[in-house]
Amino acid sequence: MKAETETVVVKNAGEEGIKTILNWFEERKASFYKLARAYSSSNQEIQEVFYQTVMKLFDDKKYNVEDQNFEMQAAAIFIKECQAINKTSIADTGNKQSGSIFNELKNLEEKDREAVAVTYLKELSFLEAAQILQISIDSLKSRLSRGIQQLSRGLEKEMHPGDCTPYRNKFIDYLGKNLDRNEKVEVEIHIPTCPSCQEELTDVQESILSLQRSADQLHIPPGLMRSVKEKAVETERLRTQRKKKRNRLGLTAVGIMTFIVCTGFVTGGFTNLYYSWMGWTEKEEMEIIQYYKSGISEPLELVQENKGVKVTIKTAVADDIQTVIYYEVEDMNKENQYFLNQDEGMRVENEYEVLDRQANQRFYHPFENGLANEEEVNIFRGKISLAPIKSDSGTINLKLMRLQETMKEEPDSSTMDSYYPEFLEGEWSFDIPVEKHESTVYDLDQESEVDGIPIQINKLTLAPTAALLEYSYQERDQEQWIEHVTMDSLTTNGYSAKADYFRGGEFINQSGEWTTLQSRFEPLFVTTPEEVTLSFDSMLLFIEDKKDIEINQAGELPQTFEYRGNELTIDQVEMAGNSTKVFITDPYTEGREHERLRMQVMSDSSSQGYGFGVDGILVDKNGEEFEPEGYHYPFEEIEQPRFFETSHELEIYDDSSSDPGYPTRLVIEGYNVTKYIEDKIIIPID
Question: Which domains, from first to last, does the chain contain?
Fold first, then answer.
């Protein structure tokens, strides 16, 4: 059976572009699944290979056109992901029913296994297999010969003595029907006269057929692609939501915080990369100087130039929390400023080999619309953060496919909605050497109280790139609980480290009545602090207060109902294909308690959907209102801001059905409210 190689049209158009690639893989999942099983028996790992391949094909725009070689391109990326999974794979606890020869395949040398898997499991021609593996056809044949011979020995086939090497070297070509007529005739004349070659040819043929039969008998899980599809579509949907939301909300403080809590923490949609939205300030310069003085890092000055734009990797700092890379982008034409945007064209090529993907990785910064520096109109300096490296040292292969152009001026409300970032396509690749540095961990056991809530300070970690504080709190009752804690700062020995607002109150574990969280701060450049002062900022609480509303039929909308003294309206229900959307207005009124509602919508078919806030309003401590699109920077000037969502969009999405059904019920579980606190805790360091 020949692998599918027909033309595919892939258009990078949000979710539809993702679905085009996913549908393409759905039709060919059998051959790709066989290929993946040569590397792993874990269906979870294989699903991750499919997901990573889909996202890389989608993200890299060079694959998003009609291309006769799309199969080859997809297979090449798929194999790289298989190799990466294989290097970090857990112990093989998968199903062994595929047959002994399939298990023997995993014992082959990596190069020989690749050749055998691509040729006989993916069923590609010698030329196609050689192109994918980027080797010559002769090298491919040599690897196939060694691999098949070892598979034969694994099946306890006998060794066949005899001086027939010239003929035996042609068996792979002969069985693959790749010999020219004269050579084919020569082999067929020799074989009947040589019992040893007859037996060996039979063994080689039986090994190949046995491998292919075993692969054909593999049980492909019915839902193999379902989770891949859901994860890929959700990833792109969250990207789109992030872009829409930050454009509409004007990047306000609590709007962003609400977005992070509601989108990031709830869905787990975090990634192992983030970038800094602004150019370097004096703070970043001082960080680098401190690193140089302490010997933690050294200047790298790695330079790549493409499309008239020069990207320089200035230095890198690694510890067991993260790996921070400082960079500079210079437009040699002196026309624009560009910066690195992880969502739009950045990739660590050897991510599986060098980065610790199990680490508690940092959420990327949502401020993607960096403002241009008026003093240096063609230079942008920033930093990115990757997951920590696995070993004490390593080399990160960072590839950039596109750079984002900075905004030349802060947009006002009339231009923000229509703004869409511009990108420069190109290729900049770096091999970045990094060395991991140790952290100092202080085990603490201090009890205190914040706003009536018992608090335990458990652990303080001081690392070169950040400070981490682990603490626990005790629930007051079962009807409300803390969802997010925002710290203000850590202060010691004259140094003050501001809290990372986007990694405050991260959940660690729960034991009995105690919930353990972790907050991150800027690095504290001190070695032996005697005490640390912790300043709090706010807590995001969830208050449980359920309400069940029956939704009227479309002809009876809009429908108004009351929740905690506020009048909400179900404006419309929109049904299109396998998606049903419900739009709700939730106006802000003075004295309104809830900032964001947690709710879901249900249909008669038992389908259910969730949603997010679309619009909102910012209110300060004194009740003054700010329209988010009219207030951008600096949000610190608003005293104790609270962001109230004023409209909601909920969606029932059923990928397996073209009709998820009309919504019949709206269920409100409760609401979020922000509470500001000004408590401080002095933490002695023993």
Answer: 14-216 (no CATH), 270-437 (2.60.40.1630), 440-541+678-684 (2.60.40.1640), 543-672 (no CATH)
Give the number of residues written for the chain: 686
CA distance 587 to 269: 29
Q: Alpha-carbon distance 66 to 85, whole Å?
A: 29
Per-position DSSP letters for 143-157, written without gaps between them: HHHHHHHHHHHHTTP
Question: What are the tokens at 481?
Answer: 């609980």
- In this predicted structure, the answer to whether residue 454 has a pLDDT above a threshold of 70 is yes
* Tens digits of residue pLDDT in 123-153: 888 888 888 888 888 888 888 888 887 777 6
CA distances from 198 to 167, 182, 189, 209 (A): 11, 19, 11, 16
Cα–Cα dist 639/631, whole Å? 14
Nearest alpha carbon to residue 468 among 452, 444, 433: 444
What angle (nearest 5°) sits at the alpha carbon of residue 322, between those of residues 46 and 466? Answer: 150
Query: pLDDT-derived band of residue 166, with 50, 70 and 90 as boundaries?
Result: low
Q: Is 268 exposed, middle or buried (0-12, 13-18, 19+ CB in 10 A)?
A: exposed
Distances (CA, A) of 435 to 316, 322, 357, 390, 616: 9, 12, 17, 10, 45
pLDDT, residue 480, reads 75
Number of helices (H) and strands (E) in the chain: give both, helices first: 17, 26
**Mean pLDDT along residues 73-87:** 80
DSSP result, 100-159: HHHHHHTTS-HHHHHHHIIIIIS---HHHHHHHHTS-HHHHHHHHHHHHHHHHHHTTPPP
Helices within 158-223 (DSSP H only): 165-168, 171-175, 181-190, 195-216
Query: Higher confidence at residue 512 or residue 119?
Result: 119
Residue 643 forms beta bridges with which residues?
A: 618
Position 244 pLDDT exceeds 50: no
Token representation of residue 628? 């988010």
* Percent of the chain residues past pLDDT 90, beyond the cut: 18
d(CA 453, CA 448): 9
Taking the chain, what is the end-to-end CA distance rounded to the nearest angstrom?
70
Q: Which two tokens stand for residue 381?
A: 């300096």
In 343-416, the DSSP E strands lie at 346-348, 379-386, 393-405
